[in-house]
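Onboarding guide, step 5: your first structure request.
Type a short instruction followed by the sequence, for example:

Predict the 3D structure of this protein.
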Amino acid sequence: MRRIVLFAALFLILFQVKAELKLPKVFADHMVLQRGQEIPVWGEADPRQWVNVTFQGKKYRAKADKEGKWMLKMDAFPKGGPYILSINTKKESKVLENVMMGDVWLLGGQSNMEWALKRTNNGEDSIKTANHPNIRFFEVGRNLSLEEIEEVPEAKWSICSPETVANFSAIGYYFARRIETDMDVAVGLLDINWGGTLSEAWTSADALLTHPDFKERVAKNQMEGPKDFSDPDLKKPNSWPTSLFYGMLEPVIPFAIKGALWYQGESNASRAYQYREIFPLMIEDWRAQWGQGDFPFLWVQLANFRQPKAEPVDSDWAELREAQTMTLSLPNTAQAVIIDKGEADDIHPRDKWTVAERLAKGAKKIAYGMDVVYSGPTYKSMEIQGDQIRISFDNIGSGLVVNDKYGYVKGFAVAGEDQKFHWVTGKQDGNQIVLETEGIKNPVAVRYGWADNPDDVNVYNKEGLPANPFRTDDWEGITYGKR
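The system replies with structure tokens like these:
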């Protein structure tokens, strides 16, 4: 009899654990929910149990499936707060407090997106004045997985203050400040990044199985099953495509967002031609996984880096920038060009404020529909006129500017049919650039800012945004065919 009682007690304990109402960590006190669109809410409960959700006077209901999983969608609400979100079953209830309705942006990428505010130019001054309770951070700790998981081990919401902001993404903080100020809205930031990582680690198996360079590797990983990523020899995300998608990103999907900010590419530069395919593949994958349509996706083009070269040379970083620019063919995308803000000796430029400001311009145009100039000049066409080449641009804003008191341009190189490039001189002529090509036989191609570190480029628009590096040729680069 005693054994039966003990067994019954043990069964009751196990049943109670199973019946616990669970929410993903992204649903917690101080969170920001996305205004203006339906809001998915999900979690776990007792199998077949009804779950009730109450928010802003409205009630919603969902029934858990046989595995205890449930999801519902709340109505769209305008900005505002703070509010209370209540979730309950017959056995348990949870009350989430200080919830704001605002705009939620995801911060993805590698170390430059991860770069802490305290390590940037004027970072300490920014920290001292960072009392902004309507800015909230959701930080996802580093985690790897090759399969779907319910939760990440370390993740939490915090309110922006001098005590919490020092180690947060500098770009994220400055971007949030601009959006909070100009759009008068609370801002939530989902901080999901890992320094030194490859884009394929952030892409799902469904997407990579469609790409010939990754399908066999991903299929092999799936067949072998879960890995013990607590083993230091295995905890290397670049060795495992999809590992960060499942380990860090997938657990927050489909938490409603306004859009995504992305700063990555340095680690993929040696395979820049491949990036032409896998970067847009990743973006389309995220959009498909979220089920929100073509949400705004903005990224930072690689900065200038390494020592400048005396003569024009090929560059994997230039080819990666080109791949990033080509991805603008996807809808609702924008690129922040920072070819003038890099540092020759440091892959982590300390001026993150300018980066965030340029991203914010893109957000105002793409995400908020504002009539703003958000891009610097981009190549439109070239016309060969004897010993001169005339370059025309799009996105000149209120006019082209050359940052030289005499109007002389820098950073341009021209090649003849021999495909050998030479620096050339040139001047601004209204909203065009005229290059002098005397001495170059049969000039056929122009490149601008085509280097790891084109440190002297000086073409802008009057709004202060730099011209996008470009080339007019399609000759095979140094990363062509590298897989």
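Each response can be followed by summary notes, for example: The first helix runs from residue 2 to 18.
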